[in-house]
Amino acid sequence: MLVSAERFRILENGYRVSEALYESEEDLTKLASQLVVRDFAVNPLLYPVNPSCEILLKTKDPSSGSILEADCALRK
């Protein structure tokens, strides 16, 4: 179950700046279809992503109730 997603813009000096926070179910569902987990985005031919944008995705584990975080990238 998706809880929230925060979009960051990566500056030239490497710092991250928060651009948007998504919390509504509709926004999260639409955004989830455009995400690739950062660990899987190593091959630009299979997973072309936007290098200047990062997404911190938070999900809730239904069995334990804990919040899990994943670093994601936006597909091009």
Structure overview:
The protein contains one helix and five strands. A hairpin with a 6-residue loop joins β4 (49-60) and β5 (67-75). It has a five-stranded antiparallel beta sheet with strand order 2-1-4-5-3. It is mainly β and 76 residues long. The chain has one helix spanning 25-32, and strands spanning 2-10, 16-22, 35-37, 49-60, 67-75. 11% of the residues lie in helices and 53% in strands.
Provide keyphrases for this structure.
76 residues; mainly beta; five-stranded antiparallel sheet; 1 helix; 5 strands; 53% strand
Concise summary:
The protein has about 80 residues and is mainly β. Helices cover about 10% and strands about 55% of the residues. The relative contact order is 0.29.
Which structural class do the helices and strands define?
A: mainly beta
Cα-based radius of gyration, to the nearest Å: 13 Å
Helical content band:
10-25%
- Strand runs, count: 5
| Weakly predicted, low-confidence segments | none
Share of β-strand residues? over 45%
What's the arrangement of strands in the largest beta sheet? 2-1-4-5-3
Overall, the morphology is globular
How confident overall, as mean pLDDT? 91
The major β-sheet equals: 5 strands, antiparallel
State the separation between the terminal residues, measured CA to CA.
Answer: 25 Å
Strand and helix layout:
Blueprint lengths: L1 E9 L5 E7 L2 H8 L2 E3 L11 E12 L6 E9 L1
Antiparallel strand pairs: 1-2, 1-4, 3-5, 4-5
